[in-house]
Design brief:
Helix content: 40-55%
Oligomer: single chain
Number of strands: 0
Shape: flat
Radius of gyration: 24 Å
Strand content: under 5%
Number of helices: 4
Order of helices and strands: HHHH
Largest sheet: none
Protein backbone atom coordinates (compact mmCIF):
# COMPACT_ATOMS: atom_id res chain seq x y z
CA UNK A 1 0.00 0.00 0.00
CA UNK A 2 1.49 3.36 -0.91
CA UNK A 3 2.01 6.09 1.68
CA UNK A 4 -0.36 8.50 -0.14
CA UNK A 5 -3.24 6.05 0.21
CA UNK A 6 -2.53 5.63 3.93
CA UNK A 7 -2.60 9.37 4.53
CA UNK A 8 -6.01 9.83 2.90
CA UNK A 9 -7.72 6.84 4.51
CA UNK A 10 -10.06 7.63 7.39
CA UNK A 11 -9.27 5.99 10.75
CA UNK A 12 -11.86 3.31 11.48
CA UNK A 13 -11.21 2.03 14.96
CA UNK A 14 -8.43 1.34 17.36
CA UNK A 15 -7.68 3.43 20.37
CA UNK A 16 -8.27 7.15 20.64
CA UNK A 17 -5.23 9.37 20.15
CA UNK A 18 -3.50 10.15 23.46
CA UNK A 19 -4.72 7.01 25.22
CA UNK A 20 -1.89 4.58 26.00
CA UNK A 21 -2.17 1.04 24.70
CA UNK A 22 -3.18 -1.73 27.11
CA UNK A 23 0.38 -3.00 27.70
CA UNK A 24 1.68 0.48 28.53
CA UNK A 25 -1.22 1.16 30.89
CA UNK A 26 -0.70 -2.18 32.68
CA UNK A 27 3.06 -1.61 32.99
CA UNK A 28 2.54 1.87 34.45
CA UNK A 29 -0.03 0.53 36.88
CA UNK A 30 2.34 -2.25 38.00
CA UNK A 31 5.18 0.22 38.53
CA UNK A 32 2.88 2.55 40.48
CA UNK A 33 1.79 -0.34 42.75
CA UNK A 34 5.44 -1.35 43.31
CA UNK A 35 6.45 2.22 44.19
CA UNK A 36 3.47 2.69 46.50
CA UNK A 37 4.17 -0.61 48.23
CA UNK A 38 7.88 0.05 48.74
CA UNK A 39 8.16 3.80 49.21
CA UNK A 40 8.61 3.35 52.98
CA UNK A 41 11.72 1.22 52.24
CA UNK A 42 13.37 3.81 49.98
CA UNK A 43 15.26 5.58 52.80
CA UNK A 44 16.60 2.26 54.09
CA UNK A 45 17.76 1.23 50.62
CA UNK A 46 19.49 4.58 50.04
CA UNK A 47 21.19 4.36 53.45
CA UNK A 48 22.42 0.83 52.63
CA UNK A 49 23.85 2.02 49.31
CA UNK A 50 25.50 5.06 50.91
CA UNK A 51 27.14 2.94 53.63
CA UNK A 52 28.49 0.39 51.13
CA UNK A 53 32.29 0.85 50.71
CA UNK A 54 32.21 0.14 46.99
CA UNK A 55 29.18 2.31 46.20
CA UNK A 56 29.03 5.22 48.62
CA UNK A 57 26.94 8.38 48.96
CA UNK A 58 27.36 9.49 45.34
CA UNK A 59 25.74 6.32 44.02
CA UNK A 60 22.97 6.67 46.63
CA UNK A 61 22.37 10.26 45.47
CA UNK A 62 22.32 9.16 41.83
CA UNK A 63 19.72 6.50 42.70
CA UNK A 64 17.61 9.07 44.49
CA UNK A 65 17.77 11.44 41.52
CA UNK A 66 16.70 8.67 39.16
CA UNK A 67 13.67 7.95 41.36
CA UNK A 68 12.87 11.67 41.68
CA UNK A 69 12.68 12.01 37.88
CA UNK A 70 9.43 10.03 37.97
CA UNK A 71 7.82 12.54 40.32
CA UNK A 72 9.39 15.86 39.30
CA UNK A 73 9.58 16.27 35.53
CA UNK A 74 12.71 17.66 33.96
CA UNK A 75 12.48 21.18 32.65
CA UNK A 76 13.13 21.75 28.98
CA UNK A 77 16.00 24.00 28.05
CA UNK A 78 15.02 27.13 26.14
CA UNK A 79 17.54 29.18 24.24
CA UNK A 80 17.03 32.57 22.70
CA UNK A 81 19.30 33.40 19.83
CA UNK A 82 19.79 36.58 17.93
CA UNK A 83 21.69 39.83 17.95
CA UNK A 84 22.51 40.59 21.59
CA UNK A 85 22.79 44.31 20.87
CA UNK A 86 19.12 44.54 19.84
CA UNK A 87 16.05 44.05 22.04
CA UNK A 88 14.14 40.78 21.99
CA UNK A 89 10.81 41.14 20.20
CA UNK A 90 7.94 38.75 20.93
CA UNK A 91 5.15 38.49 18.37
CA UNK A 92 1.81 36.98 19.39
CA UNK A 93 -0.87 36.13 16.86
CA UNK A 94 -4.40 34.89 17.45
CA UNK A 95 -6.19 32.91 14.85
CA UNK A 96 -9.46 34.54 13.78
CA UNK A 97 -12.48 32.28 13.69
Amino acid sequence: MSSTVEKTRKKTGGRVAGVPNKSTALAREAIARFVDGNSHKLQEWLDDIAMNEKLGPKVAFDCFMQVAEYHVPKLARVEQVGDETKPVVHIYKWKDD
